[in-house]
């Protein structure tokens, strides 16, 4: 393989440090993420606030972002740590989002991932559900959807 296609650890660290600075400087409302520890820049914890005018308005969720050694050429593994009720999130927190799978590109970064997840909360892809019951209720029974969401929801420390 060409050496350009597999970054060394220093290159990945430099990219993630740059993304962290970009994220901190942008102050995009409703999203944040930071490395869990100074000793491991490949594991981050993030927070996503639900967008207004959605079932998730006013709610905050924790996620984990686990970067592979060949990031950004391979997508990070992103999961909801907070319990989640959503058509595209299973009960273990796994997320079905095309940019984290087959549509991944090295041009994406932590900020674009967080914004995509925030957008997904208000605009689920019901044609590709990981939670079939949530997908069915999302359109057919808003009251029951919201009830089940709030039943699973747990407040997090900001």
UniProtKB/TrEMBL annotation:
Q: Domain named UBC core: which ranges?
A: 11-158
**By its UniProt entry, which PROSITE patterns does this protein fall under?**
UBC_1 (PS00183), UBC_2 (PS50127)
- Recorded superkingdom: Eukaryota
Cited SMART domains:
UBCc
Q: What class of enzyme is it?
A: transferase
Give the matching SUPFAM superfamilies.
Answer: UBC-like
Annotated keywords: ATP-binding, Nucleotide-binding, Transferase, Ubl conjugation pathway
Active-site feature positions: 96
What's the EC number here? 2.3.2.23
As one GO molecular function, the record gives: ubiquitin conjugating enzyme activity
Q: Which Pfam families match?
A: UQ_con (PF00179)
- Matches recorded under InterPro entries: Ub_conjugating_enzyme (IPR050113), UBC (IPR000608), UBQ-conjugating_AS (IPR023313), UBQ-conjugating_enzyme/RWD (IPR016135)
Signal sequence interval, chain numbering:
none
Q: Which family does it belong to?
A: Belongs to the ubiquitin-conjugating enzyme family.
By what name is this protein known?
Answer: E2 ubiquitin-conjugating enzyme
Ranked from the top, the taxonomy reads: Eukaryota, Fungi, Dikarya, Ascomycota, Saccharomycotina
């Amino acid at each position: 393989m060409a050496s350009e296609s597999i970054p060394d650890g220093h290159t990945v660290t430099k990219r993630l440090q740059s993304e962290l600075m970009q994220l901190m400087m942008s102050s995009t409302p409703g999203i944040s993420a930071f490395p869990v520890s100074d000793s491991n820049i490949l594991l981050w914890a993030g927070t996503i606030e639900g967008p207004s005018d959605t079932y998730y308005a006013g709610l905050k969720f924790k996620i984990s972002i686990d970067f592979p050694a060949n990031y950004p050429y391979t997508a990070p593994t992103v999961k909801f740590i907070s319990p989640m009720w959503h058509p595209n999130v299973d009960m273990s927190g796994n997320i079905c989002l095309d940019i984290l799978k087959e549509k991944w590109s090295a041009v994406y970064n932590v900020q674009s991932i967080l914004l995509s997840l925030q957008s997904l909360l208000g605009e689920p892809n019901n044609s590709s559900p990981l939670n079939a019951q949530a997908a069915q209720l999302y359109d057919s029974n808003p009251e029951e959807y919201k009830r089940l969401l709030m039943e699973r929801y747990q407040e997090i420390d900001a």
